[in-house]
Specification:
Shape: elongated
Keywords: Coiled coil, Hydrolase, Protease, Signal, Thiol protease
Organism: Lentzea roselyniae
Helix content: 55-70%
Distance between the termini: 33 Å
Protein name: C40 family peptidase
Strand order of the largest sheet: 3-8-4-5-6-7
Number of helices: 8
Radius of gyration: 33 Å
Family: Belongs to the peptidase C40 family.
Number of strands: 8
Oligomer: single chain
Order of helices and strands: HHHHHHEEHHEEEEEE
Pfam families: NLPC_P60 (PF00877)
Structural class: alpha+beta
């Protein structure tokens, strides 16, 4: 989890942004208004960049966890292969000892030492059994050796990949911290009245939800209104955009990915005109922000620095990349 606190981006449309600025600005000469609007726009831009870095960081963490799972499995496979190799090697050794202790025969020696025809047949049968057992043991031993070699190679590759992912995570974390610092500085540069407007929870009224999985997920998301946004947070008191959506569907009994990137591929695609309650709406070409539709007009989402989880107009949040439906 990202340890540096801040909040996720709202990226309001021009109408929404203008409304916030107009409501927040005191009566001043006209030359002051572009400066305030520019400051808010710059803040939104920095926040959106931080949001993408946050999703990149979360994805890298997920990749590392998956690779660690592969490494653990490879180590287990290696241990099992080594045990099998050791056991089979012992079996081959026993058969070899038996061979040189007198159990080894050929047809001539069997004929010479046999007391009867039946004794000869019995000895030949023993020869064939020993030969088959020895061949089978040798074959299995070679397979175990090959399996151990392959498991060793896989484990080594997984280890190297994990090291690279750890380095990547450290770099992404450094980039994220830098971007967060810039966004936070920009947020502090906003006027107190603008920050106060941004901090409002908005519509907190009771909203009916449909039956079924989507409705249950939406019920959870709506219950989080007013809670703060924190980059990398997984709840229950603070959220980032994708953790809110993941937790909402987990509450509804559906498992989806942690990042907005993964959520952009969940379920099936629907068009803007088909949007209904519970649909996942992913924003920006980078797919770095995600919200949940309340209906065909509104969505609930975890937004940005100083902006709590709240309802916004679907189209005011930002440019829509994809819309996904988990149920139906």
């Amino acid at each position: 989890m990202v340890s540096h606190p801040s909040r996720r981006t709202v990226r309001g449309a021009l109408v929404a942004t203008a409304a916030v600025v107009a409501a927040a600005l005191p009566t001043t000469p006209a030359t002051a208004q572009p400066s305030a609007a520019d400051a808010l726009a710059k803040y939104n831009e920095l926040s959106e960049k931080a949001s993408k870095l946050n999703q990149d960081h979360l994805k890298a963490q997920g990749d590392l966890a998956a690779k660690q799972g592969e490494l653990d499995k490879a180590k287990g496979d290696l241990a099992n292969a080594q045990k099998a190799e050791e056991s089979l090697r012992g079996q081959v050794d026993l058969l070899t000892e038996a061979t040189f202790d007198g159990a080894r025969f050929n047809q001539i020696s069997a004929l010479l030492v046999s007391d009867s025809q039946q004794d000869f047949l019995n000895r030949m049968s023993a020869i064939n059994i020993l030969a088959a057992d020895n061949a089978d043991a040798l074959k299995k031993l070679q397979e175990a050796v090959d399996a151990a070699d392959n498991a060793t190679k896989t484990a080594n590759e997984a280890t190297e990949t994990s090291k690279k992912l750890l380095s990547e995570i450290e770099q992404k974390k450094a980039d994220l911290d830098k971007q967060l610092a810039e966004a936070q500085a920009q947020y502090r540069s906003l006027s107190a009245s603008v920050r106060n407007q941004l901090s409002q929870a908005g519509d907190m009224s009771n909203i009916s939800v449909p039956a079924g999985t989507a409705g249950k997920a939406l019920e959870f998301a709506l219950a989080q209104r007013g809670k703060r946004y924190v980059y990398g947070s997984n709840g229950p008191d603070t959220w980032d955009c994708s953790s809110l959506i993941q937790a909402a569907y987990r509450y509804a009994g559906v498992s989806i990915g942690r990042t907005s990137y993964a959520q952009a591929a969940a379920g099936r695609p629907v068009s803007r005109g088909e949007v209904r309650a519970g649909d996942i709406i992913v924003y920006y070409s980078s797919q770095s922000h995600v919200a949940m539709a309340v209906d065909g007009i509104r969505a609930v989402h975890a937004s940005t620095e100083g902006v709590p989880v709240r309802i916004a107009d679907i189209d005011s949040i930002g440019p829509i990349s994809v819309i996904r439906r988990i149920e139906g």
